[in-house]
Every structure is written in structure tokens, then in C-alpha cells.
Here is the input.
Amino acid sequence: MPWSNQRGSWQGGGQGGGGQGPWGRGPGGPRPPDLEELLRKGQDKIKRFMPSGVGGTRGLFLIIAVVLAVWLSTGLYRVQPGEVGVEMLFGKFVKTTTPGLNYWFPGPIGEALTPNVERTNQITIGFRGAGDVGGRTAGGRDVRDVPQESLMITGDLNVIDIDFIVQWRIKDAAAFLFNIRDPEATVKIVAESAMREVIGQARLEDALTVRRQEIEQQTRELLQQILDDYGAGVLIADLKLQKVDPPGAVIDSFNDVQRARQDKERKQNEAEAYRNRVVPTARGEAAKITQGAEAYKEKVVKEADGEAKRFLAVYDTYKVAKSVTIQRLYIEALEEVLRGTQKVIIDSQSSGGPGVIPYLPLPELRKRAGGTSQ
Here is the structure.
């Protein structure tokens, strides 16, 4: 044996004539293993497991066949409902398979992955908390804010604190597995970046009130566009804003400002309502006065025109019949003068006895008849 031939030289190499080999510190140390003996014992153990009458080369072929069959059987794999099979050959993507039992080259030649493409995944940005599948938990007891993610700058250079969630699914299994290294981290980083870009173009007041839905829509579209450019194979199912507030350090002052603005708007609305009530009334009164003046002008002009025409008519008549016209004008003048006075008629030529004055009490008669006294 080779070990035996070299034993003498190892034993004579020590100081003071004492030999020392590599397997021990002296001549009496442990001897090196015998490789031929190890191989023989291994063959004996294999023959023990073989059926009777099988041995030598034939048994070795049988062992190889069994091992090969077991290895080939590992190529069977099952794709569950909601999953997609992704088959690779020497680490390179080949094709995808549908749910069911499938076969592919076993490892290390081939490999099959089965990602779930129907499960909706959720990422929280700006906060962390247990049990917040539907959003922030009640009262915020289980929520921990992450200011590094939630604090953003608006377009009017104000700071705003935004918490939101992103729900996503796998759209293309092959692209999801091979185009980006960490899909979930990529979705989170891109979502935060997209939100910062949209918020950077919005005013603080708009983001807090009227533009929340518009901000959600714009951020979701921008996020989907970036992921498609990356070839991430991810579909953004939804993006929801959870909390949109000023930073906690100034929220009390901000609320005071908001209340002042609300009071201002309320006063303005009251003033607008008063103006809407008073101005039409004033305009109506002005129109009424204007119309009355116009009517009075028309009346005066018409009456003056009528008097002028009457005077001309009387003058024409006077030129034709002076005495008759004078008598008629005299009677009309007396009628006009005596129209508003009380009248007592006494007949001095009455045939009554002496001391009896004939009297016609016209005012008393009118009062008894219900008329007015003249």
C-alpha cells in the first residue's frame, strides 16, 4: 500500500530519532484511511439493497434507471386557479401555462413558477398599521405615521401630510418575474414619486377639499404609465387617499385660518343675499318712479295740448258770435266757482205772508239722501 511505503520515511523525520507522521504526533498515532477498503464496503452495502440475483453492471444500470425516473417525475407541477405557470429552460423564460397539471423539464435544466395573478395586493404609503386592509383603522390607534413618505410640497409651496394606499395585481406574469428585481418595492417607490409630482402641481386648499378625486385619478394614471414604461407587468387596480391634512405641528393654526375663511365666505354670502334682495327692489322702485314720471309728463303734455286746442276753439267761436260766447263763458265761470260752495236759494218774489222767507235747504236734503254737501 502507498501509505505503508511512506510510513518509514515519516517516522524517521522527527528530532532526536523519534518519528512523527501527518495523521498523528508519534509512531503510535492513528493511521490514514484505506481508500480501497472504503470502496469495497460501499459496494457491499449497495448489493444488500439490490434484489437477489442482481449485481455488477446490471445492478448499476437499474439504479441509474430508478434515479432517472425519480428525477423526471419531479417535472410534474400543478397550477392552481388564479395562478399562471411560468416555464423556464436554463433560467430563460420560454412560455406560460394555464391552471391544471403540467409537465416541464425538471431542475436544474428547467424550472416552473406559479405566481397568483388574481390576488389583489396592497401597499400603504405614509403610514403603517395592523389590520388596515380597508384603510386606516378607527381612531388611528393601530396606525404609525411615516413622515418621510407622507410629507409633500404643494404647488403653492405649502407642506401637506398625505396617507394613501395602492392596490395592484399582476398583469403579465413573465414581465413581473423577470423585468424588475423587487416588484413590490418598485410599485411603492413609483407610487410615492407619482403622488409627489401630482401634489407639486396642486394648491394646498384644492388638495384638501375639491380636488381629492382628481388627484387620485391623475396619480393612478401616472403610476400605471410609469410601470408600463418599466415593463413591470403590474396593473394598478385602485389608489385611495386616506388622510390629507396639514402637518401636525401647524394643524391648529391651519384650522383657525380655515375657520376664518369660512366666516369670510359666510359674510360674503350674506352680503350677496342682501344685495340680491335689495338691488332688485330698488331697481323696481326706480322703474316705478320713472314710469310714473313718464306718465305724468304725458298727462301734462296732453292736458296742455287739449287746453290749447280748447282755447283756440273758443276763440274761433267768439269771433263768430261774441255775445253768445261771452254769456256761455260767464255761466261756465260761475259754475266752476260755485261748485264747491254751499248754496241757499231765497225767492224774494214769493207770494208768502209778511215775514216769511221762502228757503230751499239743499245741503240738508243732500245729507238726508246720503249725498255730500255742496
